[in-house]
Amino acid sequence: MRLPLPEKASQPTVEFDAEEIEAILQGPALDLKPWPVCQVKLKDGRTLLIREAKLEEAPMMLDYLKKFLDVDHDFYDIVGARVYSEVLGWYRKRLKDPYTLVGLIDGLWAGFANGRLMNEDINISLHTMALIRGGRIGAVMYYAKAYYGFEILGNKEWWATYESYNGWARWGVGMAQPSYPWPDVQHELGGARVYYVTKKYWDQMVKKYVQQMTGSELDFNVPDEVIKANEVMRVPDEVLV
């Protein structure tokens, strides 16, 4: 947009350093406490290590997520597209206060969970995925990120929505989540209905429900050999959903 100047300018052309613009585009970030590495014994006996994804792992994750765009059942195509954009937003620093957790079994990428903070009180759950079958990996990853929000970050509310019928049945109905009036309050995933959990409700009921779903507890005393076995992440050879 160009408009005539209402007053003479001694410098009619103003230049910006891209680093100055970047400071505006990113905005100040919240000081998020790190996720402490943990392990979970799955129902089938395998050990799942849950840690923060490393930024240098993002290109490999993005290449794998592209494969979901061709999966036309249970909304995996739109979930894949949205998760791709979220991982790319984290990688390119275009997502506000994100957290990205990966679940690994002997280095194999088996689970994914991410979200972001709207502010210090509200945690926006984005997506949770089990990338290999068995062990209720999806439930474990969902529990881990909800635990992160309420128990570690001290958030007061958890906002979620659901693209698939299975996700809505397991978490929306399963946790008896209330919802805010729609369309007055909308989730950022497509403007869908916001289902929420408060810290009080988490302590009273939801935490116990998710623990029952996982069948195990988060173990933050991870042996060195388990950490070493999962230092290098590799993706599955194919999409197993």
Characterization of the model:
There is one protein chain. Strands 1-2-3-4-5-6-7 form a seven-stranded mixed beta sheet, sandwiched between helices. Strand 5, helix 4 and strand 6 (157-160) form a beta-alpha-beta unit. The protein has helices at residues 18-26, 58-65, 76-91, 137-152, 165-173, 199-214, 224-229, and strands spanning 38-41, 47-52, 98-105, 108-117, 122-130, 157-160, 195-198. The longest helix is centred in the middle third of the chain and has 16 residues, at 76-91. It is of the alpha+beta class and 241 residues long. The chain is built from seven helices and seven strands, in the order H-E-E-H-H-E-E-E-H-E-H-E-H-H. Helix 2 (58-65) runs antiparallel to helix 3 (76-91) and helix 4 packs antiparallel against helix 6. The protein has a domain at 36-157 and 216-229: Aminopeptidase. Helices cover 33% and strands 19% of the residues.
Blueprint of the fold:
Layout: H1 18-26, E1 38-41, E2 47-52, H2 58-65, H3 76-91, E3 98-105, E4 108-117, E5 122-130, H4 137-152, E6 157-160, H5 165-173, E7 195-198, H6 199-214, H7 224-229
Parallel strand pairs: 5-6
Antiparallel strand pairs: 1-2, 2-3, 3-4, 4-5, 6-7
Notable features of this structure?
241 residues, alpha+beta, Aminopeptidase, seven-stranded mixed sheet
Number of strands: 7
Report, as a whole number of angstroms, the end-to-end distance.
Answer: 48 Å
| CATH level-3 fold name of one domain | Aminopeptidase
Helix/strand order, N-terminal first: HEEHHEEEHEHEHH
Could you estimate the helical fraction of the residues in percent?
25-40%
Q: Pairing-aware structural class of the strands and helices? A: alpha+beta
Write the CATH architecture name of one domain.
3-Layer(aba) Sandwich
Overall geometric form: globular
Q: What does the average pLDDT come to?
A: 95
